[in-house]
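Let's practice the habit of predicting before peeking. Look at the sequence and jot down your guess about where helices and strands might fall. Then scroll down.
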Amino acid sequence: MKVVFAGTPEFAAVALRALHEAGFEIPLVLTQPDRPAGRGMQLQASAVKQYALAHGMEVAQPLSLRMDAKDPQRAEEARAAHERLLGLDYDVMVVAAYGLILPRSTLDIKPCINIHGSLLPRWRGAAPIHRAIETGDVETGVTIMGMEEGLDTGPMMLMERVAIHDTDTTGSLHDKLAALGGRMIVAALRKMEQGQLDSVPQPEEGVTYAAKIAKEEAKLDFSLPAEVLWRRVRAFNPFPGAQGLVDGVTVKLWNAELVAGQGAPGQLLAADAGGIVVACGEGALRLLELQKPGGKRLPAAEFLKSFPLSGKTFS
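Done guessing? Here is the structure:
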């Protein structure tokens, strides 16, 4: 079976690696254009592109796949990509966190299958892993689905569940789901080869949408209950990183736990080797790993050596 692959970040690269190692022929890889990254803002290839080039795969990076795009360059690149797909010998397109909308013109060429990091129809959209943790879901998973023009609305082919533990962050849960997605897409294509890949429509009830994470969401409001903030610290690790403001200085908060405590929201209740305890609207949060501007992520005890908090409050 010949597979065109479309994806961009590490979540997708794990799936591409699984397909390649399973022996599927991959005549073309689509990924987003290189983006500036890091302190030097140098152009950086996506994780998918890096893997594809390292293994001799052809890579295309159109700005858009919509031939009706208003921007002439985007429209031209979309037409070129469309012609390439029309002339290519392949059986199926696999999509994972590509980041570009696949228009009807692309979906109509060959079957398109998506790897989605949630239990559909819950958490359709861009940030299903973040939102599952932030909301307090006790489980999530991966759905292999057929693609259509709606946002993650296509029929479901395979689904597997994963428990969300209290210690899970978006980073740790991402890695679990990426590995699971890689195994599941290989299984799905094996079933397709044998004519045994069935699908069922998504339920009409239980639909939720996982909006893209905005950097503005990172700032914590300590008037909220501690449990809400604890989930956000985990959900925003590694991106964008939860933040607290201390005397006008933004401090990133990477790890925390719920503890008993009472005081005015943002009040410092304790600051020692065991952690930094901050009162919230309900309960308290013990901050375990923090980072000051320009510094490294540090355990609370090490952080306090260079950033004393006596008499200060979080806001």
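How did you do? The chain has a mean pLDDT of 96.
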